[in-house]
Amino acid sequence: MAPKSVSAFLFPLSTPHNLTYFTPKFLRIYTKPSPILCKSQQTPTATTHSSVSTPDPDGTGAAAPSRGDQFLERQKSFEAAKLVMKEVKKSKRREKGKALKLNTAVASCYGCGAPLHTLDPDAPGFVDPDTYELKKRHRQLRTVLCGRCRLLSHGHMITAVGGNGGYSGGKQFVSADELREKLSHLRHEKALIVKLVDVVDFNGSFLARLRDLVGANPIILVVTKVDLLPRDTDLNCVGDWVVEATTKKKLSVLSVHLTSSKSLVGIAGVVSEIQKEKKGRDVYILGSANVGKSAFISALLKTMAHRDPAAAAARKYKPIQSAVPGTTLGPIQIDAFLGGGKLYDTPGVHLHHRQAAVVHSEDLPALAPRSRLKGQSFPNSKVASENGMAVKIQSNGLNGFSVFWGGLVRVDILKVLPETCLTFYGPKALQIHVVPTDKADEFYQKELGVLLTPPTGKERVQDWRGLELEQQLQVKFEEVERPASDVAISGLGWIAVEPVSKSLRRSDMNLEETIKELHLAVHVPKPVEVFLRPPLPVGKAGAEWYQYRELTEKEEELRPKWHY
C-alpha cells in the first residue's frame, strides 16, 4: 500500500487542478522553491480552496515594502536615470568637439589649411599627384603648399569663399557659414583665445557675439596695424579709447595690446601674456577676414623664436599672407610651444557688412592701406580751386556739397557750420572729389570707373550695383575744441567730423549761438554698414583734445589694462 499511496500522491502534483485536495502545510513540506521566480496574475475561481505561495523577494506580510518605500525607490531610479542621460549627453558633446578638432589633423596645406587632394586643379588644397604620393610616402604631407597658396604668395588675387552677399570675383569653393562652423568646437574646448581687431577698421572688424563662438574661454584682445596711424599719435590715448569701446560692447577681456606685425611693436607683450595665461591649453588666433592673423602669427613666431626652439622650427612652415579675404580656409596647427599646447591659425570670420564683401577681387588691394595714414581734410583750398568753387565754399562752407570717396562712398552735407571740416582717414588709392549735391548723380554716372574707383574697368562697372544704401546721420556736439564724432565705414576707414576747424575758426565767432547738431547723408553699397562712434584720438592734435574718463575704484579694478 505504501508505494501505491506514494504514486497516488505524486501523480496529482503534475496536474494543477488536483492541488485543491491537499493542504498548504503538506505542500510546503514536499515542494522546493524554483530558482527562477515568475509572477503571474490569475483570476481566482470559485472552486479554488488553496494556492501555492511563491517566495517574494521584497518580502510578504510585515516584511513587505510600504507604498512610501516603493515611491522612494522609484524616485531613486528616476534620479539615477537622469544622471546617466546627463553623462551620455556630455560624452556626446565631448566626442563632437573631439571629432571636429580631429578634422584639423587631416593632411592639409600649411599655408591655408585646406585639405590636400589631387582632383580639381582650381580648388584650394590641390597638389600635383606625383608630389602628393612622394610626400605621403615619406610622411611629409605637413610640409606641402597647395597650388592656390603658391599663386597667392606671388601676388595673385584668387578668391575661394562665397556667400558673403557681395560680388564673388572668382570661383567659390566654400561658404562663409562653413568656415564659421569650423570654429564651433571652441565652445567645448579649454583654450586661450587671442582676438584680433584692425585699428583702421575697428568697428567693422570687431566680431560681434564672440562668446557664441568661444564660450567662456578667456580672451586677449590684440589691436593690429597701429603703425598705420598718423604720425605723432599718442598710443596711451588710443589704448584708453580701445578699452572704452570694448567695455561699451560688453566684452570681458584679460588685457588689450596695441601691436604692429610689421614693426613688432607690442608683440613681446602679447607673447608674455600668452605664456602667463596659457596654462597648458591650446591657443587660437581669431578675427575677421583680412584683419592680419597670418601676419600676426608670423611676428609672434619671430619673437618667440629667440627663446623657444619649437617656435623657431615652426617659422619654416608658417601660414600664407594675402589681401584676399578667406586666405585661410581651415584651422592650421602650429607646434609653437615647447612646454605643451598648440597654436592654431583659424579661418577669418567673413562679415558681409564690410567693403571687401562687395568689391571685385582684383580691387581688394586698393582697400588695404600700405603706409601711414594721412588725413585729407575738406574744405580744402586746393580742391575748391580745381573745381572753380572757392568763393561758394568759403562763404557757406560745405553745405550743399557732396564728397565722393572713390566709387564706394558718397557723403551729402545737408546742414553744417560754415567752419565745419571733414577729415578722411583711409587707403590712399581712393581719391576724394567734391561736387555740388545737385550734380552728384550725374557726376557719379559719368566718372564711375574713371575718376571714381573702385570699381575699375568697364565690365566691373556694368556689374556694379551702385550706392544703394543711404543713412541719415545727426551728429550732436557740445564742444567745438574737439571732433564731434567719427563716421566709420565698415571695411574702409573713418571720417572725423570737426564742428569748427582750427584753420577756419574766426575770432569774431559767437560759439554759444551756433547750432549743436550737424546733418549728413552717407551713401554706401548694400549691405555695407556705417557706424557713428566717439572720435579716435590720432595725430598730435588727438593727444591735446582727448579726455580720460574718471573711474571709480571698482571700475579701475575690473577694467582691463592696455599694453604696447
UniProtKB/TrEMBL annotation:
**Alphabetical list of CDD domains matching this protein:** YqeH
List every stretch annotated Disordered.
Answer: 40-68
GO MF, one term, reads:
GTPase activity
**Coiled-coil stretches, from where to where?**
none
**Stretches assigned to the CP-type G domain:** 176-352
What are the transmembrane regions? none
Q: Indicate, by first and last residue, each region the UniProt record lists as having compositional bias (Polar residues).
A: 40-54
Cite the InterPro entries for this sequence: G_CP_dom, GTP-bd, NOA1, NOA1/YqeH-like_C, P-loop_NTPase
Organism's domain of life? Eukaryota
Which protein are we looking at? Answer: NO-associated protein 1, chloroplastic/mitochondrial
Organism of provenance = Populus euphratica
